Amino acid sequence: MAIIGGGPAGLTAAYCLQKHGSSHPIVLEESSQVGGIARTEVYKGYRFDIGGHRFFTKVKPVEKLWKEVLPNDFLRRPRMSRIYYRGKYFAYPLKMFNALNNMGIYESARIMLSYLKWKVRPHVEEENFEQWVTNRFGGRLFWHFFKAYTEKVWGIPCTSIRADWAAQRIQNLSLRKAVWNAISGSNDTASLIGAFDYPRLGPGMMWETFRDRVEEKGGEVRMNSRATRIYRDDHHVTAMEVTPNEEGAKPYRLEADQFISSMPISELILAMDPPAPAEVQVAARTLRYRDFLIVTLILKGEDLFPDNWIYVHSPEVEVGRIQNFRSWSEEMIPEPNRSSIGMEYFVNDTDTMWKTDNAVLIKQAAAELEHLGLAKASDVVDGTVIRQPKAYPVYDGDYQDALAIIRDWLGNFDNLQVVGRNGMHRYNNQDHSMLTAMLAVDNIYGAKNDLWAVNVERSYHEEFEIASDRDKAAEAAPAESNRPAQFAAA
């Protein structure tokens, strides 16, 4: 059995195949590290997370798997995050007196009046992000806390982002619930969790252990190995062409009876041989992605600020989110009296910033950190830059129709399943990516699970079960992972 992608979905598929009795699953990973966007990078002993991954889930089979693979290496971390807006830091989740003090009584009253207005006269249709958020939070709060940051993240107007992205990511949070949480101290919304688990050496520790377990049981995880062609006989995959990312290495053919793919679904379609139908290829080329880069700064000083991360709405800086890796785990920092700060930028790979020299980016990030009042640029002693292509599938106005065409065509294959975030062009968290892989493995052994039912909007309004033929159920309920929008990510 062949699996494309060594991220959470691909490695989970391999691990679960072995639990079913398959002794030799083969995982192909095009990079030199496992974990995908959930990996942990290392620079001079400093470890850092690509985007921030909290281990919190209501999907019980996934939680059980986490603890099974990494039983003794989780830290329980308090969650702290803030929003930087108009030169002030707002506690997030909302704290009533902090918000009132920062916004002022007058503006706070306008926010509440706007909320009531849109409750009485909401948008009749909710086709885009702006309409969806305004109906639930009011136009004033949308303008303050959603518009600028969301457009910084996605690089397109809020009116061009589909409403189903908001429904999926912001979940069942409302202004009324946020205010009640602030007053009462209660917290029943997953996007506002107060504590979470985190591997002591970063999320990559989980996926490196998954890889080791798979290999110990006779499986293979082939690094620097890219699936460049998918050979098919009508709707049956017969083999793949694998191209090693090594000088002098030649492509080779890999045959298998079952295939699971977590590579970007657009690339999967365009790699088909013979080619997919013309309309399916057009649909694949329609799908868009948002790229991401993180500038990691090493600074003098140990306790710069206590947050796990800070969301930056300020338009005069380009950084979108800031991580403090010591707040995730002290073991991420190898030296005393040093801090490691991740400055996150949401970009496209065609942007100037993506192509900018690392030294220039480090200097810019240091200057922005000082502008935000978090540290002095002169305290930066070192740094590095990681670029992550195709970090986020874009939910623009064209993606639904394009994805429907692709899903319809792929649905006819008898031995190919797509899983994971980019594999399904779905903004899945790592637990939902894992769940799609677990259910895909069940399907190989006779189940009839609909992988596309995982993490749909109704999963945030009610807990429901997706049962496999092994009588194992998974609650497709919200979790925390790598989310760029603050109300969805914090």
Question: What would a concise description of this structure say?
Answer:
It is built from 17 helices and 22 strands. By secondary structure, it is α/β, with parallel strands linked by helices.
How would you portray this structure in words?
The protein is α/β, with parallel strands linked by helices and 490 residues long. The chain is 36% helix and 24% strand. The protein is built from 17 helices and 22 strands. It has helices at 8-20, 60-69, 96-120, 129-137, 139-154, 163-169, 175-184, 204-216, 265-270, 278-286, 325-328, 352-355, 358-371, 399-410, 421-424, 430-444, 486-489, and strands at 2-4, 26-28, 40-43, 46-49, 74-78, 81-85, 88-92, 195-199, 220-222, 225-233, 236-244, 252-255, 259-261, 272-273, 289-300, 309-312, 321-324, 338-347, 380-393, 416-418, 465-467, 473-475. The strands form six sheets. It has a seven-stranded mixed beta sheet, sandwiched between helices. Strands 9-2-1-13-20 form a five-stranded parallel beta sheet, covered by helices on one side. Strand 6 and strand 7 form a beta hairpin. Helix 4 (129-137) packs across helix 6. The two termini are 38 Å apart. Mean pLDDT is 87; it is low at 457-490.
- In round numbers, the mean pLDDT is 87
Please count the beta strands (DSSP E, at least 2 residues each): 22
| Overall radius of gyration | 22 Å
Oligomeric status of the shown chains? single chain
Q: N- to C-terminal separation? A: 38 Å
Q: Write out the strand line-up for the largest beta sheet, numbering strands in chain order.
A: 7-6-16-17-18-15-19
Major beta-sheet overview: 7 strands, mixed
- Tally of alpha and pi helices: 17
| Helicity level | 25-40%
Structural class: alpha/beta
Unreliable residue runs: 457-490
